[in-house]
Design brief:
Elements: E1 6-13, H1 17-29, E2 35-38, E3 69-70, E4 76-77, H2 79-100, E5 111-113, E6 116-121, H3 123-137, E7 146-148, H4 151-157, H5 159-162, E8 171-176, E9 180-182, H6 184-197, E10 201-203, E11 206-213, E12 219-225, E13 231-241, H7 247-254, E14 263-274, H8 277-280, E15 286-288, E16 302-308, E17 311-321, H9 334-337, H10 344-353, H11 355-365, H12 369-376, E18 389-403, E19 406-411, E20 414-418, E21 424-429, H13 437-448, H14 453-463, H15 475-489
Parallel strand pairs: 1-2, 1-13, 2-10, 6-15, 13-21
Antiparallel strand pairs: 3-4, 5-9, 6-8, 7-8, 11-12, 12-13, 14-17, 14-18, 15-16, 16-17, 18-19, 20-21
Helix pairs in contact: 1-6, 1-13, 2-13, 2-15
InterPro entries: FAD/NAD-bd_sf, MQO
Keywords: FAD, Flavoprotein, Oxidoreductase, Tricarboxylic acid cycle
Catalytic activity: (S)-malate + a quinone = a quinol + oxaloacetate
């Protein structure tokens, strides 16, 4: 960037998986558009997208119990599980397109097959898991899922978890070989390297201090070089705010009415990590359990196989924590400065409604390592403290807003906030986040570029064959997508849908 005002078609704020995905989609749709990426850190994917700041689960509802809810009549609502699974299929299709187009050379650099499992203990949770399995396994998206209460079978699936386990209560698990481990940090860097080769301007160590509407209806960004403090101006026709927890402050600075009344609540995470090969080799799965009473959905305990930098490790957690920062590299004043006159009542209402969550977070923050090891031993009875280290993971900012259910409701998910004219959009929220990045960025495209959708339809369909199609009404297409994306991405042992076709 130079001293005079620079003009561009698109500005992407934040060099994480969301900006990388939107930039990659737009470059395929309109190669001649000038795209500029602004990132305050020295490298791409260093906040929430970083491989050590998330569990790397390709969220597809194969194992996450919080995506299926037991209704008052005892039946299981699987609607959210279906939505999350379908959105992950969209991500797989786009990644496959990039591989088949030689835009990604080696998919194993960011995705590998890892079974996804749910594991429960106690009669009540076993009953729930069985009903969940019955509801999901009859759905074409979840064919191939297995269920067992047999300790011998579970010892085959999860030998490390079964060692030393007492047999005084019922246990059960489901298993799907269609699961994956995704290194979103690596994927982010791959996508941004590709974008740079396509003449996308990427400016690291630059921070967006302000966003202002110009008299011509475009946006002017005040951009500061964090190394030398030099301030520059950048004019853009379209701005995407994809700065993770930092997005809320920038949305507020934009002044668009759609951003009024929205607040944020930061939640940090910690994991226990084991890198000892003799232990890691005994576990090959992502195993999710039930969240403790009062815990936020993002705190569902799970024991995960991870592949990072060609090394295999195990992560257990997350343990929730609290920091007023909205980013790991943020300010201790982030939470306070996010409170504005237009969201004050909303934030106060959220504080009253979520007193139990606050209590839970306080208890989590003061946990000793031994207390965290006790939680791990619910999964690994023989776990030894000296084999596990504590890892501080990324910051997440949950959305707080007024809904039909009341004022100050805490939202667990992601949401696109955009101006009425589509000239600016921001992504707020957290999980499932990165796994559904392609679907979320397609939502941004639909909201912000409706005048181009008809012209872009053919290219989007080329990149994502299921685009505009209800997958559940097309089991043959589900089978085709799973087979083709498995081949392109180097994933094996995908489930077979012949039984439902």
């Amino acid at each position: 960037m130079n001293n005079r005002q620079t003009e561009t078609d698109v500005v992407l704020i934040g060099a994480g998986i969301m900006s990388a995905t939107l930039g990659s989609l737009l470059k395929e749709l309109v190669p001649d558009w000038k795209i500029t990426v602004i990132e305050k850190l020295a490298k791409a994917g260093e906040e929430s997208s970083n491989e050590w700041n998330n569990a790397g689960t390709g969220h597809s509802a194969l194992c996450e119990l919080n995506y299926t809810v037991e209704k008052p009549d005892g039946s299981i609502d699987i609607s959210k599980a279906i939505k999350v699974n379908e959105e992950f299929q969209v991500s797989r299709q786009f990644w496959s397109y990039l591989v088949n187009s030689n835009l990604i050379r080696n998919p194993k650099d960011f995705i590998v097959p890892v079974p996804h499992m749910s594991f429960v203990q106690g009669e009540k949770d076993v009953t729930f898991l069985k009903k969940r399995y019955e509801a999901l396994s009859n759905n074409p998206l979840f064919q191939g899922m297995e269920y067992s209460e047999d300790p011998a079978k579970l010892a085959e699936w999860i030998p490390l978890m079964m060692k030393g386990r007492a047999s005084n209560q019922p246990i059960a698990a489901t298993r799907s070989e269609a699961g994956t481990d995704v290194n979103f940090g690596a994927l982010t860097r791959i996508l941004l390297t590709h974008l740079k080769s396509k003449d996308v301007d990427i400016h690291y160590n630059h921070h967006v201090d302000d966003i202002m509407r110009t008299s011509r209806g475009a946006w002017e960004l005040k951009v500061r070089n964090v190394d030398n403090g030099h301030v520059e101006r950048l004019a853009a026709k379209f701005v995407f705010i994809g700065g993770g927890g930092g997005s809320l402050h920038l949305l507020q600075k934009s002044g668009i009415p759609e951003g009024k009344g929205i607040g944020g609540f930061p939640v940090s995470g910690l994991f226990l990590v084991c890198k000892k090969p003799e232990i890691v080799a005994q576990h090959h799965a992502k195993v999710y359990g039930q969240a403790p009473v009062g815990a936020p959905p993002m705190s569902v305990p799970h024991l995960d196989t991870r592949f990072i930098d060609n090394n295999e490790s195990l992560l257990f957690g997350p343990f929730a924590g609290f920091s007023p920062k909205f980013l790991q590299t943020g300010s201790m004043l982030d939470l306070i400065t996010s409170v504005k006159p237009h969201n004050l009542v909303t934030m106060l209402a959220a504080g009253v409604k979520n007193a139990s969550l606050t209590t839970y977070l306080i208890k989590q923050v003061i946990l000793s390592k031994e207390k965290r090891m006790e939680a791990l031993r619910e999964f690994l009875p023989n776990a030894k403290s000296e084999d596990w280290d504590l890892l501080v993971a990324g910051q997440r900012v949950q959305i707080i807003k007024d809904t039909a259910a009341g004022k100050g409701m805490l939202q667990f998910g992601t949401e696109v906030i955009s101006a009425a004219d589509g000239s600016i959009a921001a992504l707020l929220g957290a999980s499932p986040g990165a796994s559904t990045a392609v679907s979320v960025m397609l939502e941004v495209i639909h909201k912000c570029f409706p005048q181009h959708i008809e012209a872009w339809h053919s290219k989007i369909s080329e990149m994502i064959p299921s685009y505009g199609v209800a997958l559940l009404e097309n089991p043959e297409l589900i089978h085709e997508i799973h087979t083709s994306t498995a081949q392109s991405l180097g994933l094996t042992r995908e489930f077979d849908l012949q039984s439902v076709m």
